[in-house]
Amino acid sequence: MCGAFVYVQLEEYPYRLAAGLRWRAVVGELIDRRPDLSSRFNIRPSQDVVVVINKSGTPVAKPMRWGLIPNWSKTEKISQNTFNARDDRVTESTIWRYPLERKRGIVPANGFFEWKKADGAKQPMYITPKEGGIFQFAALYDSWVNKHGETIDSCAIVTTSSNAFMSSIHDRMPVILDNQSLPIWLEPAITEPDRLQSMLIPTSEDLLRAHPVSTAVNSYKNDSLNLITPISIAEPRCSDGQLRLFDQ
């Protein structure tokens, strides 16, 4: 599951799309038009997010509502949550099958939040790339036209089972694309569902780090740098007397 994430000055990161195309420039252009899409520390479903797609070999950055509305839907409100798309359902669900074959992109992020259960409470954790930089979340998107003729672009972040690192925090995590899988995911000519689904796997646990953060992140109304600042918490003591943050 991925229900809240962060990005900070995305336009400053020189990451590349398929065929070596830089997407820094197109993200910067989008944020120039939409300053509200710049640094954000508590992005939640139903809000607009930055999505990068490969259109005829050219990177395009678009604002999309987080929470996919299928193009065939009769209403904007869907009876199920569509901000995440499970990897084990994308080839079968009527909601995900068409976007998987035709409408794939990435959602860039500096990190994401997950809530670790401990002693009956839930401690928010902030997960980031161990070496800094950004995540490139696999995303599906679609376009829906409302009764006024307005087109609403919307998206979902694809999730998969957790790797060994994340399993101590939550049983699911976003699909994080590396530089090898990214060009395949963004290539419009590739439409085979089984081939695409085979890419939706947990990233290496060696690439992640995490730290506890304030429960202020629990409220979508809060959005500031303080939400990703590490805090000290009482950590469980193991049988060997050592304190470990990610005890099972």
Overview of the molecule:
The chain is mainly β. It contains 4 helices and 12 strands. It has helices at residues 24-33, 97-102, 181-185, 193-197; strands at 5-7, 40-43, 48-55, 58-66, 84-86, 104-109, 111-118, 121-129, 135-145, 151-161, 172-174, 208-212. The strands form 2 sheets. Strands 3, 4, 5, 6, 9, 10 and 11 form a 7-stranded mixed β-sheet that branches. The chain has a 5-stranded antiparallel β-sheet with strand order 2-1-7-8-12, with no helix packed on it. It starts with a strand and ends in a 36-residue tail after the last strand.
Helix content: 10-25%
**Please, how many helices?**
4
Order of helices and strands: EHEEEEHEEEEEEHHE
Residue runs with pLDDT of under 50 for 5 or more positions: 16-21, 236-248
Top keywords for this entry?
single chain; globular; disordered C terminus; mainly beta; 248 residues; five-stranded antiparallel sheet; 12 strands
Short description:
The chain is mainly beta. It has helices at residues 24-33, 97-102, 181-185, 193-197; strands at 5-7, 40-43, 48-55, 58-66, 84-86, 104-109, 111-118, 121-129, 135-145, 151-161, 172-174, 208-212.
